C-alpha cells in the first residue's frame, strides 16, 4: 500500500504561525474600525435638533471579540427612528409646561406626532462602501 508524505517547508512555518497568532487581534481591530466608521456616519446623518444629542451620544461597545453594538444613548432615539403617534403632553415634575418662545406656561399641549426618521439605516447604507474597504483590507491581510 502506498503513502503520501506532506510537509510544509521550514520558511512557511513562521509565516503561518504569525498569521494564526495575529488573526484574532487583527480581526478585533477590523471590527473596531468598522464600528468607528459606522458611528461616524451615524453621527453625520443624525437629525441635529437643538441639543445635538442624537449625534453626540452615538457610541459603540464590544459585545464579544467579534461583535459590536452601535447605538445612541439619547433618550429620544426610539421616538425619532420609529416616529410617534399624536399625543398629549402634560408636565411631570412641574405644574406647567414652558419652553423658550412660549407665550406663557401651559398645563397641556397636543403634539401631532412625528414621522419616523430611520437615519441609522441611511447611515449604514452610506457607510457600506467604506466598511467594505475595511473588511477587504482585513481579508487581504489574511491571504497575503
Question: What can you see in these coordinates?
Answer:
With 144 residues, the chain is α+β, with helices and mostly antiparallel strands. It has a domain at 14-83 and 116-143. The chain is 48% helix and 13% strand. It has 4 helices and 4 strands, in the order ααββαββα. The strands form 2 sheets. A two-stranded antiparallel sheet has the order 1-2. A two-stranded antiparallel ribbon has the order 3-4. A hairpin with a 2-residue loop joins strand 1 and strand 2.
Provide key terms for this protein:
4 strands, two-stranded antiparallel ribbon, alpha+beta, 4 helices, 144 residues
Strand content: 5-15%
Can you write the helix and strand succession as a string?
A: HHEEHEEH
- Amino- and carboxy-terminal Cα gap: 38 Å
**Shape, please?**
rod-shaped
Tally of contiguous helical segments: 4
Helicity level, as a percent range?
Answer: 40-55%
What would the average pLDDT be, to the nearest integer? 90
| Main beta sheet | 2 strands, antiparallel
The total count of strands amounts to 4
Instruction: Supply the helix-strand structural class.
Output: alpha+beta
**What would you report as the Rg, rounded to the nearest angstrom?**
25 Å
Which strand order spans the largest sheet, edge to edge or round the barrel? 1-2
In terms of per-residue confidence, which ranges show pLDDT below 50 for 5 or more consecutive residues?
none
